[in-house]
Amino acid sequence: MTLPAGIETPAVLVDLDIAEANIRAAQAHCDAVGVRLRPHVKTHKLIALARAQLAAGAVGITCQKVSEAEVFVRAGFDDVLITYNLLGAEKLARLRELSLHARMAACADSATTVNGLSAAFASAPKPLSVLVECDTGGGRCGVQSPEAAAELAGLIARSPGLIFGGLMTYPAAGTHGRVEEFMTVARDRAIRAAGSCATITSGGTPAMRTFTGSKVVTEYRPGTYVYNDRSLIARGDARVEDCALRVAATVVSRPTADRAILDSGSKTLSSDLLGLTGYGMLPDFPGAMIAGLSEEHAVVDLSGAGKRPDVGEVVSVIPNHACVVTNLTDRVFLHRGMVAPAATAVDARGRVW
Amino acid sequence: MTLPAGIETPAVLVDLDIAEANIRAAQAHCDAVGVRLRPHVKTHKLIALARAQLAAGAVGITCQKVSEAEVFVRAGFDDVLITYNLLGAEKLARLRELSLHARMAACADSATTVNGLSAAFASAPKPLSVLVECDTGGGRCGVQSPEAAAELAGLIARSPGLIFGGLMTYPAAGTHGRVEEFMTVARDRAIRAAGSCATITSGGTPAMRTFTGSKVVTEYRPGTYVYNDRSLIARGDARVEDCALRVAATVVSRPTADRAILDSGSKTLSSDLLGLTGYGMLPDFPGAMIAGLSEEHAVVDLSGAGKRPDVGEVVSVIPNHACVVTNLTDRVFLHRGMVAPAATAVDARGRVW
Q1: ipTM for the assembly
Q2: Chain-chain contact of A109 with B255 (C-beta, under 8 angstroms)
Q3: Numbered ranges of CATH 2.40.37.20 in chain B
């Protein structure tokens, strides 16, 4: 590929035409199956793309951390769900400050988290909406049963400064049946324990294509769909031409006939494998395999490749996992079909606390 | 562990007493075996620690990219080796600008790279020193034989704007014999082809402990030794108490008796495995295993652990690979035995182009 002048490699390129098409397609899907869309902005961490998501019909945004939410609330976003157990005096003070400027919601899966949130919000001007995180098979955070969800919902409803906002899960891909079952029982019990259960929010791009509607889920929170990546291609959830984010890398060495070295390593592509073999796809060089990464080098195995790139050539890489790539780079180049790329700061890069 | 007020998790902590002891020990080792030390600053990306390395006796610094070198040259560092094949008009123009302010050296393993460097420096006020990168078994960049090294050395010596500076390798760990053999032949042939071969530079913390001197290597370039990490503990190259860099993380969930969730995921610890099982060590919780990471969560398997942390507890994590952790965080907290931590910007974070 040929890069416009002024862009040095490695460079993270975002094709806005593709990203906007992905945003429209996900919104159309959620509209069609009857759930609200609350995109997770951790994928792009860009105010401009979050605004495009809202303009397309999203009801608000999802953030993973308080520091990330601060960037978006400062930019005027007024409806933010933080899908995280927030603990610690400093973090809770910042959350309380955010709640003066935006409609904030947070999550909890333990009484310890609920009690901390309540202590921080008991004297706040507005109560905080708190959803119970449910482990529907993802094996990460979350209460382990509908009964435990209802019990925590009751505690939230009784806690000063808090209102019970509903139930949240990040499901394992392809487990919609399990989500449906867990959430139906949990919702009915939570209504008995807490008086209401307004929102049932699920999410994830990997499960979105097969999510064809629900009798209980009211909201969906995908993130990666805005860019797509090699992991989603491998799952059959995206095509190469749906990948809005690419890394432009230069071939800096061809030490042997079967080996090329790129100037993008784990500090650009990350080491995320997501169950795949190899660390990225070279769509213009079929059969080429990124066999290994060090911090600043990618080692490409060309033994299975017909066409092979020369030293100095710039190649396009579709990373395994787009969400970690954007968090590694201070800037992305936004463009439309490689025309007029604009270096743009990644607004919430590194906001992980 | 107890964090001083004002530090939110996840936080990257650097104990300066330990880092300084590591710097002294590596310098003493290189002095004892009779090689110059040129530390790779990609590990810490901090001007303050690079200064400490020079003060201890290092002859200069190693950088991996031009953008990284720019940060250090601007801070006054005047002897910088970039161990990389540099290609592309913009990058070469920046390298030429750097060479007006510091003694710069770069590397090449192909005529394409040499010709590009020569075109950029033919009209420069001072020639650029160029070393030939040799693949002594690491399987990354580098010419494949001593004969090819000598041939490229001759080309460099004949190229306008360049002087031949010597030979560079990043060896696979434990291959000192192979390095010795390759470099001895390459040096003798390079002297015949280019008239001299001033520097033979090798490197890497993993190979440093077993590097007990050489008849040919004149310079050594370790990076990770300043911090150490779990990968070096696993290799027997460092002890827990030699690890200057730790990640402080909060237990945000204990969904089951055998599972804890930390607030530090792949956006803090990185997914680097370096051949290990698990994504980090919890030195205060023997038997606990970081079994998986998502972007903002670490899933800890406690089934083999006696002592187990509670929700809200702050734990200390030794990451698998320190060099990628510092590149993920905008700031580290420098301290001495957890006293008076000072938030410090990671000067060259994200400087990968």
Answers
A1: 0.98
A2: yes
A3: 230-345
Q: How far is A184 from chain B (nearest CA, A)?
A: 20
CATH of domain B16-225: 3.20.20.10
pLDDT at B85: 98
What is the H or E stretch that residue B130 is in? strand B128-133
Cα A311 to the center of its chain, rounded Å: 35
CB B95 within 8 A of CB B128: yes
Lookup: tokens for A308: 């092979």
Classify domain B230-345 at the CATH topology level.
Lyase, Ornithine Decarboxylase; Chain A, domain 1 (2.40.37)
And the tokens for A218? 């009211």
DSSP label at residue A253: E
pLDDT at A5: 84
**Inter-chain touch A252–B139, beta carbons under 8 Å:** no
Numbered ranges of CATH 3.20.20.10 in chain A:
16-225
Query: In chain A, positions 308-327, which contact chain B (CB-CB < 8 Å)?
Result: 310-312, 323-324, 327
Optimal mutation site among B263, B323, B326, interface A, most CBs of chain A within 10 A: B263
Q: Which pTM was predicted?
A: 0.97
Nearest-CA distance B257 → chain A (Å): 11
Neighbours of B315 (CB within 10 A): 23
Residues 282-311 of B with CB under 8 A from A: 294-297, 299, 310-311
Q: Which CATH number fits domain A231-345: 2.40.37.20, 3.40.920.10, 2.60.40.790, 1.10.10.10?
A: 2.40.37.20
Helix (H) or strand (E) holding B30: helix B16-33
Angstroms from A85 CA to nearest CA on chain B: 6
Cβ count near A204 (within 10 Å): 20
- Per-residue model confidence (pLDDT) at position A168: 98
What tens digit of pLDDT does each residue of A103-114 get? Answer: 999 999 999 999
Token pair for residue A130? 């708190």
**Contact predicate B298/B280, CB 8 Å:** yes
Candidates A139, A328, A353; nearest CB to B10? A353
Look up tokens 């990040």; give the residue.
Answer: A170
By Cβ distance, the residue of B6, B84, B88 closest to A8 is: B88
Pairing of strands B11-15, B331-336: parallel
* B218-237 residues touching A, CB cutoff 8 A: none
Answer whether B352 touches A (CB < 8 Å).
Answer: yes
CA-CA distance, A249 to A279, in Å (whole number)?
13
Q: Where in chain A is the domain with CATH 2.40.37.20?
A: 231-345
Give A133-192 pLDDT, tens digit per residue: 999 999 999 999 999 999 999 999 999 999 999 999 999 887 889 999 999 999 999 999
Which residue reads 């904030």 in tokens?
A: A104
Contact B261, B294 (CB under 8 A): no
When pLDDT is cut at 50, 70 and 90, the band that residue A207 belongs to is confident
- CB contact under 8 Å between A140 and B297, yes or no, is yes
